[in-house]
Amino acid sequence: MIPPLLFVVREAPQASTGFSAFELLYGRQPRGILDLIKEGWEDQQDKDQNLIQYVIQLRERLEAARSEVVGNLRQAQQRQVRYYNRGASVVRKFEVGDRVLVLLPDRESKLLAWWQGPYEVVRQVGPLDYEVYQADKQKKKQVYHINLLKKWEDRECMYLASWPDELELGPSLTGESRPGDVELASQLSEDQRGQAAKLIREFEDVFRETPGEARGVVHQIKTPPGQVIRESWRRIPQRLQSPIKTEIETMLEKGIICRSHSDWRSPIVAVPKPDGRICLRVDFRKVNAIAKFDAYPMPRVDELIENIGQARYISTLDLTKGYWQVPVAPEDQEKTAFTTPTVLWAAC
């Protein structure tokens, strides 16, 4: 199938040149099966022609085709430029020294592109083209079309409030906090600080260290029937056993876990912190390997950033122990079982 397909591609005239690739190379049209049949029906015979005449005529045909192709390509380029510039806004304009983002291909996949920068505009080289200085590139100066550029906006960051003892996964659960424990940002004015304090007092049950419980959602762990994951517990260094015991007692007190007699068992991983405490993790990789996941479309980070590009204020909320706030379906709680040296625990 490949040779016939190649023949079709090579004999078809191209939109930009107006000629087929075969004709530009050999100076004549290709003779296919239908051409041979037509010549037989019409009883066409090749005229006697010596080699010198054939070469002269071939050169004349190639030269005429070349001249026509140059004109056709120039017109095609002008059409492409008009089509590409059609999406360029005449309102947008950059000045020398402006910082811009450039839409460049991803290093790992050339089919993906994302906004990189910021870089500095050096000069304008055309109505819609700009030369940009890129300090982190091998070629420092490069010309880009305005469709590949967008202005970089510097944003002021201001924290409304923060916990004085903030950790990676939220504050410690060793004690209850009060609204007065929240530190308000120094960048706020007196009026803004008063409004923030009033808001925190009004929603005192929300701004606290104790994790809440998500409403309207239950986490399900769908696995093949009859398949169970049972791993051996891993040896825990002596210096981490006391922090692990403290963390387990805290989780037990808050009702996050309870004793279990499950057939399932996954090991724990304790990640020490500089302050002597730990982040307790459960290694669910083998459970995840057999679990059935929902094909829910996750939002793309670059699209989210573009959606908030015109926003004046951007707010974020950090859930205290966010993973603890999602309840597990009762029939799947046994699959969350994890082991310590003496006890088997599971979510409850």
Automatic annotation (TrEMBL):
EC identifiers of the protein: 3.1.26.4
Ranges where the Integrase p58-like C-terminal domain occurs: 117-151
Transmembrane segments: none
Coiled-coil regions listed: none
Top EC group: hydrolase
UniProt cross-references to Pfam families, sorted A to Z: Integrase_p58_C (PF22938), RVT_1 (PF00078)
Gene Ontology MF annotations: RNA-DNA hybrid ribonuclease activity
Gene3D superfamilies: 3.30.70.270, HIV Type 1 Reverse Transcriptase, subunit A, domain 1
Location of the Reverse transcriptase domain: 279-345
UniProt similarity note: Belongs to the beta type-B retroviral polymerase family. HERV class-II K(HML-2) pol subfamily.
Record's protein name: ribonuclease H
Species of origin: Alligator mississippiensis (American alligator)
